[in-house]
Amino acid sequence: MKLFDVYAINDITITRAEGSWVWNERGERYLDLYGGHAVISIGHTHPHWVERIESQLRQIAFYSNSVRIPIQQALADKLAKVSGREAYQLFLVNSGAEANENALKLASFHTGRKKIVSFSKAFHGRTSLAVAATDNTSIVAPVNETEHIVFLPFNDEDALNNWFREQGTETAAVIIEAIQGVGGITVATNSFLQQIRSLCTQYGAVFIADEVQCGYGRTGRFFATDHAGVAADVYTMAKGMGNGFPVGGILIAPHIAPKPGLLGTTFGGNHLACAAALAVLEVMEQEQLMEAAESTGAWLLKQLRALPQLRAVRGKGLMIGFDLPEELKTLRSHLLQEERVFTGEAKPNVVRLLPALNLGMDAANDFISRLKSAITALELQQPTKTANVNQ
Ligand SMILES: Cc1ncc(COP(=O)(O)O)c(C=O)c1O
Which uninterrupted H or E stretch holds 363? Predict the structure, then answer.
């Protein structure tokens, strides 16, 4: 049977991984600045994570949400502490799209309204409402099209004000990534996030922070919206939450009340996923990974900004992007094939760096020297730009 051919894959088979390094079947080592798409938060095969999953597996891997699952409460307690959201409630799911789907549905249940504000270049996942709130028509199937979603320009305070003045009382939710990932590492201004907060409060709409990619400590704070000093009503999480074990969740503010049957899932919150997610938070605490993300990220940003060939270096913590000029458009593939470094991309010309939060200074240094040699090699391949001495 063929695999359904939907991914543009690199011709590389990874057979082993540790920390920020992965190895192919020939034993060749690659530096991972991509983290398997922002998923590897505490490093590949972290021993504490492996140990916790292994010992959970020997006790019980799964039972449905029809019985008490104490490890869910242990996870909620740890998450409350690490995120500083003691009063919030946790609902567990399996992926980022599912987290956003439930957040949007919950906002509509809570407000009794239908309109949802999303933003240009947003990516919220591929399930029906999440994809409808994603600004990419090529992945929206006809059945997902809905007039309930409006896309406003990102960081445009006037457009948001105008929308709320006209349709605020019909608006169920505003959903935003504080740093857009797929959209190209575009950072929301603090004042834009603060304005979303105050308009949602004024009109009774739900502020949903999609922290699936930018959250979970990646930017040096637990949530990327924390930099703006605002609290969202609902936070959605996935990617780094399980360090590769599929788990997602939504944090729900105390004023949004549950009722039996309102949300539900078969696999969400299973024992194994909770063990993986608990291990991640324990390591984040023990190894102070938010602080590490902040300091390693600040160092990387400084080094990247000192390279004149890279354009618009931006981001926070270990969520970094820069634009490539035309003459360096093959930089990512050169980095992968010649320098053995994985990086991420955003169309058309953005390089995204999303490494593990414990990348560390040695690996960060290593990356910068491999990047410099890739840039030099590509520059040497360019036809020499000779000055026209006759003019
Ligand atoms: C910001 C954001 N939200 C949601 C998703 C969807 O997550 P998943 O692929 O786990 O469904 C992604 C995935 O890239 C994302 O970057």
Answer: helix 360-381
Give the pLDDT confidence score for residue 383 in this predicted structure: 77
Position of tokens 């944090």? 251
Query: Which tens digits make up the pLDDT trace of 96-114?
Result: 999 999 999 999 999 999 9
Strands (E), the chain: 14-18, 21-24, 29-32, 89-93, 115-119, 149-152, 171-176, 179-180, 186-187, 206-210, 234-237, 248-252, 311-316, 319-323, 341-342, 344-346, 350-353
Please spell the DSSP secondary structure of 257-269, one letter per residue. ---TTSS--SSTT
Residue 208 DSSP label = E
The Å distance, Cα 82 to ligand 1 centre, comes to 22
Taking the CA of residue 248 as reference, the ligand 1 atom at the shortest distance is 10
Residue 293, amino acid: A
Q: Dihedral through CA 143, CA 125, CA 225, CA 341, nearest 10?
A: -150
> How many whole angstroms from its chain centre is CA 343?
15
Which residues, judged by CB distance below 6 Å to any ligand atom, belong to the binding site of ligand 1? 95-97, 100, 123-125, 177, 181-182, 210, 212-213, 238
